[in-house]
């Protein structure tokens, strides 16, 4: 997805009062950087756009953009002095951006009244459609999955979504599934491929794979893939700067933004690893064999491989946490994702110490008591925040 597409989606969420703090700041930063450049549509561009979609009145545009300006004022460290002429220009800019978001449909349904917009629980599993619409997935219910045009493309039953192999979609249309901390989810793609998503994971994928095109998905987090075999259509997982290419196999990919490396563990079959800016070449790229892990260093782009016990890296699917010679700093990251907590380790010596441990479905208190028994750590738990001294 390019930058323009991303900012349009975030702007739409901002208007609907669905942005988190980070996304709201992104909106403010975008307008600060671009408000005095030629990056925005001209008056003539706006006129053309308005002939193609229902017109938005100036009062509505003014109100919407005032929210953006207000947020900008609140987050500025110095007072912003805004003259009358730029403000008028920004109102036109806001109207043109909203038109680019295809707001005709939304405006007719009166959803720009932010006071009536639904508030999305940050701990909810969400499905974002191609048009930016966000749906909340309730794990204790059944529902139909529809595309942005209202067509049924799959079904959701509890912690699993199954996409229809016979959907009439004939172009690449992407959905994005986001799993918060403390939860896991299962997804069956239109080709039958099953994906297990770990907590804190986002997966962008086509509603339907198109004949003649690679089966490509985009991962941010951790997932286990059981890929349906299709020799004519390679399956490619894009994990930031690393691509994982398979024809049909079982493997685990862990690629959280805060981690220094991306790990690919192969359980069965064969996978090829290559950098995101490269074209796959089996004679040059790294090929993993079953029982091996490939680690991509995000800093220098190097790839190292070694034999591993694959069960250590896939036990999370059964709700288990397994650590082998892992620093407490890295263990803390996994505990945060698994239990949806924040951990502050003030004991610097402990942070670098390495442990071997395995836990089932125990509460976080029992896990911490284990480290207390063998290391004598002092910790305080308050709500979802843990401080280790």
Task: Tell me the layout of helices and strands.
Layout: H1 3-15, H2 21-34, H3 43-52, H4 58-75, H5 84-100, H6 103-108, E1 125-128, E2 134-137, E3 142-146, E4 152-157, E5 160-163, E6 174-179, E7 185-188, E8 194-197, E9 201-206, E10 215-226, E11 235-239, E12 242-246, E13 250-255, E14 261-268, E15 271-275, E16 286-288, E17 292-297, E18 303-307, H7 310-314, E19 321-327, H8 328-339, E20 342-345, H9 348-352, E21 354-359, H10 364-375, E22 379-382, E23 385-388
Parallel strand pairs: 5-7, 10-11, 20-23
Antiparallel strand pairs: 1-2, 1-6, 3-4, 4-5, 6-9, 7-8, 8-10, 9-10, 10-13, 11-12, 12-15, 13-14, 14-17, 15-16, 17-18, 19-21, 22-23
Helix pairs in contact: 1-2, 2-4, 3-5, 4-5
Pairing-aware structural class of the strands and helices?
alpha+beta
Compute the number of strand runs. 23
Highest-level CATH class of the largest domain: Mainly Beta
What are the segments in which pLDDT stays under 50 over at least 5 consecutive residues? 35-56, 75-92, 98-115
Report the helical percentage. Answer: 25-40%
What overall geometry do the principal axes of the alpha carbons give?
globular
CATH topology grouping of the largest domain: Jelly Rolls
Distance between the termini: 43 Å
CATH architecture of the largest domain: Sandwich
Radius of gyration: 24 Å
Largest sheet: 18 strands, mixed
Number of domains: 3
User: How much strand content do the residues show?
Assistant: 25-35%
**How many helix segments?**
10
What is the overall pLDDT average? 80
